[in-house]
Design a protein that fits this description.
165 residues, alpha+beta, Multidrug-efflux Transporter 1 Regulator Bmrr, Chain A, 18% helix, Reg_factor_effector_dom_sf, AraC_E-bd, GyrI-like domain-containing protein
Length: 165
């Protein structure tokens, strides 16, 4: 199930995350354990997240390898370590919707948001060259996930794409 897409303005937001390159068909095995690593490091260092965990998709190449980051937003910039790094979501306009349901069908939400952006005459922030597509910010924020709710029908994910100004 999908909510109505909308445009929202986001201020600059900092995060702590682990970066990983992963094949699209391996996302569900590779990225979720990274969230636990970031959470544990933040807990050990007494850093509180200010929102839900997320996956940020930065780019994809012609072999379906994605550059990703998995982490949590934080209130103020704090340096990580050699494995967990500080990053930021840029200030600007984003298109978003809420996807409800099992993660295995979440591509439906991404496709719906892409189509909505196109139908509204908007442009996602994208650069493509030499077989690599770089997104300004394609992010999944896990509002209700398996850690808190065992029923996949009740999982909710906010999907956000950064737009051109």
């Amino acid at each position: 199930m999908l909510s109505e897409p909308k445009i929202e303005y986001q201020t600059l937001r900092y995060y702590l995350a682990i970066a990983k390159t992963v094949y699209m068909n391996k996302i569900s095995q590779v990225l979720p354990p990274l969230i636990s690593e970031v959470r544990q490091w933040m807990h050990t260092n007494k850093i509180e997240p200010n929102g839900p965990d997320f996956f940020l998709y930065k780019s994809i190449n012609e072999n379906n390898e994605l550059e990703c980051e998995a982490g949590f937003t934080i209130d103020v910039p704090i340096e990580g370590n050699s494995h967990i790094h500080l990053g930021s979501f840029p200030e600007g306009k984003y298109a978003s919707l809420i996807y409800s349901g099992d993660f295995k069908d979440m591509m439906e939400g991404h496709m719906a948001l892409e189509n909505w952006i196109r139908q509204k005459g908007l442009k996602e922030k994208i650069q493509s060259s030499q077989g690599v597509t770089r997104w300004g910010g394609r992010t999944e924020f896990y509002l209700i996930d398996p850690e808190f709710e065992p029923n996949p029908a009740k999982w909710q994910t906010k999907i956000m794409f950064q737009l051109e100004e």
